[in-house]
Each structure stands twice: as structure tokens, then as C-alpha cells.
Request: fold
Amino acid sequence: MPEPSTTITLPVEPLSAGTTILRPWRESDVAELVAICQDEEITRWTRVPTVYGITAASAWIAESRALVRDRISAPFAIVAATGGELLGSISLMRFSWEDARGEVGYLLSREARGHGHATRAVRLICAWGFAALELERIELLAATGNAPSQRVAERAGFTRETILRSYHLHHGAPLDMIAFGLLPGELDG
Reply:
């Protein structure tokens, strides 16, 4: 496992599979990120605020470098292999370095859903997390009502483990989450 004093180093070359690429965030992504986060399905299931504008997007992209430096998160932009259009966001986060464990979280634009981008992005970041960060377990939490996210977890090779009741306060209301787990060697495909 990496020593606590070292930093996370994002790959120099983008991670790619098929039509999906993961790369570090850029300031030029702000407008596209704001547009993606206007989708009610994203604010329904993620921690993205219901009002999300240029200031919030700019601050988040600027903060992404510090999150990497401080070993808090490894955030990537999900982009189309052809044309480089921003499709969404994915991160490894909530690390427990002493247990070699992290969590994956993602969001995808309405237009990008249903084309395999989320599954490919989850597989890419998990493979990178196991190899580069020497993680021994990656978790994925999906709301009990978020069937599409549950399907992504299962297609990526995660095992459904349990329901965490009232696990997350979402817009002030408790939300039950399904916990999925993935170990090295279990990535599907």
C-alpha cells in the first residue's frame, strides 16, 4: 500500500476503453459540467447541489488538484473518445488507506447514458485503483431506488453485499443505499 506521506499521482496518459476516456479535469470543462449538472436525475441521486452554476463548477475543478495532492480523492472527467465531449465525472474517494479501501462514485450526462460509458468508466478507474493505488477493495454505493446505477455496478463485476438503512442524508431526507464491493481480480470483462 502507498505510504501515507506520498501523493496520488494521476496517470500521464488518459485511461481509455472503447469510446470512453478518463482524464484529469480542466478549467475548460466548467461550462459543460454546469450543463450536465442541471439534470434532475443527477441531483436526485448524487451530492451535486440542486442549484449548480459556474462558480460551483469552477471551484470544484480547481479543488480537484488539492483533493489529489492531499490523498482525499482521485477525480477524473469522463469524455468521449471521439470529439472529447465531456460526458460525466468519476472519482475514487473516501479512502481508508490503512485498510487499502476506497469508494467509487460517478455521474453521467443524460445524453451519455445507455451507451456503456458508466460501466467502462467504473472498470477503468477500478483497474487503475487496484494497480496504481494498491487498493484491496473498492466499494460502490447506489440508492435503493437507483436501478441504473445498480446495473452499472453489477456489469462492472461488483458484488451486491447489503442494504445500508438511512445511510445518507440527501437534501435533508434519509436515503437507503445498497453497498457493492469489488476485490482485485473480480473486474468483469
Q: What stands out?
A: Strands lie at 15-17, 20-23, 73-80, 86-96, 101-108, 137-143, 159-170, 173-182. Helices lie at 30-36, 40-45, 54-69, 117-132, 147-155. Confidence is low (pLDDT under 50) at residues 1-6. The two ends are 25 Å apart (CA to CA).
